[in-house]
Specification:
Elements (H helix, E strand, L loop, with lengths): L6 E7 L7 H11 L4 E7 L5 H8 L5 E6 L4 H4 L5 E2 L1 H6 L4 E4 L5 E4 L2 H10 L9 E5 L3 H12 L4 E5 L3 H14 L4 E3 L10 E4 L15 H4 L7 E4 L8 H8 L3 E3 L1 H16 L7
Helix pairs in contact: 5-6, 5-10
């Protein structure tokens, strides 16, 4: 029940019907007797600057989660960014301060690693392959570097995007071994698909089948796609004896980080 006293958070994007955050957050608020609610907001791109400006005066709005396609577009509209969000040029969460100032961070990567830790994966000294150099892939790559990954390979059909991400990572982490090529998957401790490939019923693989066949059983194979939960990549990896991490696991793990940044949940929510 939303009352006059209810504090609000939002999730912003377009389209918005597929997102799981309102269900996850509102269930947690109800289960923990919090007078807070999350609203899904499907906003046209032309209205984004005005909406962000409106947030500054929206007194009962604590913050806003940002999803596709606005993670990059919102960053220059905010009053402050964390070092991580500034380096990536993106924000996926906004906190409204008491004085109306808007502060952004990008927590896709920390949410991913929180889920990975539940599978006993810890980045320090490890070798990882990130497929996709877009928003989610960049955030995961940055978080892996923050947590001490030894080697990082990036792959994306858009080579300029790979090169741009390499530049961001090497500026922030000069000693990181980051490459845009690899031979097979046998050397990696983590392989993650951070692209939409595999979504829906297409049956598409984000990596060639013959490459997936080179995975070793110790490797954690992860996918950010939320539907289906078991993508073709994860299905083949599981059949080969690998540990797998699904998209919904990352989304659920990230909830506490997002909520804590907005000041509405503990980090372990």
């Amino acid at each position: 029940m939303i009352r006059g006293s209810t504090q609000l958070v939002a999730i912003l994007g377009t389209p918005i019907a597929q997102v799981k955050s309102p269900e996850n957050f509102n269930r947690w608020f109800a289960d923990n007797d919090r007078d807070i609610a999350m609203l899904p907001i499907d906003l046209g791109a032309q209205a984004l600057p005005a909406f962000i400006d409106t947030l500054r005066g929206w007194n009962n709005l604590r913050g806003c989660v940002v999803t596709v396609p606005y993670k990059q577009a919102v960053a220059p509209l905010l009053d402050a960014l964390t070092d991580r969000a500034a380096a990536l040029g993106m924000a996926n969460v906004i906190r409204r301060e008491a004085d109306g100032r808007l502060v952004g961070d990008h927590l896709d990567g920390t949410g991913f690693l929180k889920a990975a830790a539940a599978h006993d994966f810890h980045p320090t000294g490890k070798r990882a392959l990130v497929v996709g150099a877009g928003g989610v892939g960049a955030a995961i790559a940055y978080a892996l570097a923050e947590q001490g990954v030894q080697h990082l390979s990036l792959v994306d059909m858009r080579q300029p995007q790979v090169e741009a991400l390499q530049g961001v990572l090497l500026k922030a982490f000069p000693s990181l071994d980051v490459q845009a090529t690899y031979t097979d998957l046998s050397a990696f401790d983590l392989v993650v698909n951070a692209t939409p490939v595999g979504m829906g019923d297409t049956g598409q693989m984000s990596l060639p089948t013959d490459q997936v066949a080179t995975l070793r059983p110790h490797t954690l194979v992860a996918d950010v796609v939320t539907s289906p939960q078991i993508t073709p990549l994860l299905a083949q990896a599981k059949a080969q004896g690998c540990r797998i991490q699904t998209g919904p696991e990352m989304a659920r793990a990230q909830m506490g980080n997002l909520g804590a940044f907005m000041g509405v949940t503990p980090e372990d929510a």
